[in-house]
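Section 5.1 Outputs to date
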Amino acid sequence: MSQVTTLLQRLRGNDRAAVDELFTLLYDDLRRLARSRLAANGRHALLDTSLLVHEAYLRFVKVGQLELNDREHFLAYAASALRSVVVDYVRRRGAEQRGGDVDHVTLNTEVAQSIGGSDDEILEVHEALGTLAQVDPRLVQVVEMRYFAGLTEVEIAAALGVSDRTIRRDWERARLLLADMLKRT
């Protein structure tokens, strides 16, 4: 009987030390699996091999008792765990790109109400716009025209010589960036 089979039997008997020994024994195989998962995702993946293996280990420990018969069965389960780690990471990164758990700030587009806002709010928006100007000056123009002047998307598009769809995208991007900047202050 192989060492892996013995460890898997101990694992089925709820021997928690067997998990550590099994991962130590098969660590190189797990790193090879992780490398192949990361290579499939291209060079843009921000995970590294060790991190991926360690995340898979943590998931393995969380599951507790599994019915694994042999080394191949263990590696098949580990490959599935590696895949779920990568998928969760990509989803989390995508959520962060879409604003994640950032508090959404609704900018008031009515001129009278925006002028009636508190002095602190107007100053905070002004300072944030200064920072935003370094990222994209057109976004500042869109915010100024919509937030401070109360222009519609069609009016802003005509003034800047772009489509109203572009203005809608710019407005959404500006709102997200400003919300992040205002949250930090």
